[in-house]
Amino acid sequence: MFHSLYHQTLNTGAAETKSGTPALLNWPASYTEHFKQVDLHQYTLEVTGLVERPHTFTYQELLGLTRIQQNRRLVFADGYSFRSSWEGFIAQELLHKVAPKPQARFLIQRNAAGQVECLPIKDLYANRALFCLRVNNKSLPELYGGPVRLMVFDRYAHKGLGQVVQLELSDHEVPGDYSKLGYDDAGEIQAGNYYACDLRNIQPVHHTGEVTQW
């Protein structure tokens, strides 16, 4: 989620959130600006830019969108991965509500910590990128990007921001903040060996793009 500028990583086998709630997912959580405490009654997701109907969604409105479950694997540029059943709404479901203008080609994300990432809209649609609200039948923990995290499964996980609070549709691309930390801005998953946190072993990846074979 938030890759560590300070190399500060929480091993979630024993980690707790700020509120003392035990973490629910078995992957390391790392961050630059730390996760934020979020009041769901106050949380909003603003969608602006090249749209016909800009709108600021409340959390309850997001819960009312058509939700699906996807069992898919997130892969992290730091060399690990995690598969689970994620629940949320696909990017196309949300953007349909605001009616993108024809010239809108890129989705610029901003999160509660002020970080920015950018992805082509057509790629989000093609990959059925998911705005995740729940995992393991529980709300996505703040430690892992809750209440709302964009999950883009054919890119490294940092290309979809956790705790996203603003989306801007644009006709031009902007560089993502993680490129400033040395990550490839395209974020395409590369061949190599990755530790699968859910399987507790190292697994090989022989191609670029989404990992589906394990």
Q: Mean pLDDT, rounded to whole units?
A: 87
- What is the CATH C level class, in words? Alpha Beta
Number of strands: 14
Q: Give the tally of structural domains.
A: 1
Query: How would a textbook summarize the main sheet?
Result: 7 strands, mixed
Shape: globular
Q: What's the tally of helices?
A: 3
The unreliable regions are 1-23
CATH superfamily: Oxidoreductase, molybdopterin-binding domain
Intertermini distance: 21 Å
Derived structural class: mainly beta
User: SSE order, as H and E?
Assistant: EEEEHEEHEEHEEEEEE
- At CATH level 3, the topology is Sulfite Oxidase, Chain A, domain 2
The gyration radius over C-alpha positions equals 16 Å
Strand content: 25-35%
What CATH architecture would you give? Alpha-Beta Complex
Helix content: under 10%
Q: How do you describe this structure in short?
A:
The protein is mostly beta strands. It has helices at residues 59-63, 91-98, 121-126, and strands at 9-10, 29-30, 44-49, 55-58, 68-75, 80-90, 106-111, 116-120, 130-135, 138-139, 149-151, 164-170, 192-196, 201-205.
